[in-house]
Amino acid sequence: MSHKSNSLKRLALQKFKKNFWGVFSFGFIVLVGLVAIFAYVFAPDNSQYANQMHLSIHSKQPGFKVDMLTIPSQLKNHQSWLNKVFFGKKNTDTEIPISKYSVEKAMLMYKEYASDGLEGVEKTIPLSTFPNNQVNDYIKERYFLFGTDKYGRDLLSRVLVGARISFFIGFVAVFISLFIGIFMGSISGYFGGKIDAVVMWIINVTWSIPTLLLVIAITLALGKGFWQVFIAVGLTMWVEVARVVRGQIISTKEMQYVTAARALGFNDIRIITRHILPNIMAPVIVISAANFAGAILIESGLSFLGIGAQPPMASWGAMIKDHYNYIILGKPYLAIIPGLCIMSLVMAFMLTGNALRDALDVKS
């Protein structure tokens, strides 16, 4: 039995490997996952939430370059390297975009950057402000691959850090939906009768409420925030899982191996968890992939409405909300780039789910 099970797993894996778009999408999901985990390592702006603002260089085109003067702070930053990698650097230094500078009589003279043909303000600062008077170490050319947003923040860094919200909400929401959905669907399908009627009534009532409206209600009840959104989305996605599990158990509980388990005296919990659920997980895995995509879209919608992840936290949906009016102002990339990120990740999960469905289909 174990050898046969392993053979079926290998056969499913081989079928999945032959699906180019499924493998490609799965690789893309893994890549986005690594970027989400180590976002601050890859982001040019590794400050917390990539929130370093420079209003003088707001809404610049992709590929924009400018000299950036960093004035070191006298405050000591006690932060471990591990904290910097996963949560960003607590930046206490002051960064100023400049157009030109010169050193005269132990003073640094610089002109602040100004766009639209305006003249920047000329200022001076003692060289003693910089360690060992090495001012050249604190003036570097900054390159903005995706340009800057309306607050002068690096758009590429915001996109990379924003991947965390969209990616991890899928995991948390799917985990919550699986935990509730499998439990409710299992007891409903296995025991039937009044338990099935009560569970189905709860499922039907929950399903009759528009998903976005239900998420908004739960979010308002729990409060605005990072984890509140995750929980709210998860609490609205369990009904699909419950209906699938219920239907699968109803068609499986009369199989011979379940009858044999009852004859051997196994209790109901063991029969459900050790015998039935392992044999019906294929459709659950497929619907989980679809729920990943659904969770990303719901979170993006909530952030667009302003009740998702709150500023200064980076979120793809919030980035679209901040810049959707720029589409008609000649700078559509500010909204299109995060929109393409959402579309790509959702498409990857959907294609992976389709590939898993084909691979786990024993009839094909």
UniProtKB/TrEMBL annotation:
Q: Which domain of life is it from?
A: Bacteria
For this protein, the parts annotated as crossing the membrane are 20-43, 165-191, 198-220, 226-245, 276-298, 333-356
Q: What is this protein called?
A: ABC transporter permease
Major localization listed first in the record, in broad terms:
membrane
Which residues belong to any copy of the ABC transmembrane type-1 domain?
Answer: 163-353
Q: Tell me if Cell division is a UniProt keyword of this record.
A: no
Report the PANTHER family cross-referenced here: D,D-DIPEPTIDE TRANSPORT SYSTEM PERMEASE PROTEIN DDPC-RELATED, OLIGOPEPTIDE TRANSPORT SYSTEM PERMEASE PROTEIN APPC
Enumerate the InterPro entries for this protein: BP-dependent_transpt_permease, MetI-like, MetI-like_sf, OppC_N
- UniProtKB keywords: Cell membrane, Membrane, Transmembrane, Transmembrane helix, Transport
Protein family according to the UniProt entry: Belongs to the binding-protein-dependent transport system permease family.
How does the protein associate with the membrane? Multi-pass membrane protein
Location within or outside the cell: Cell membrane
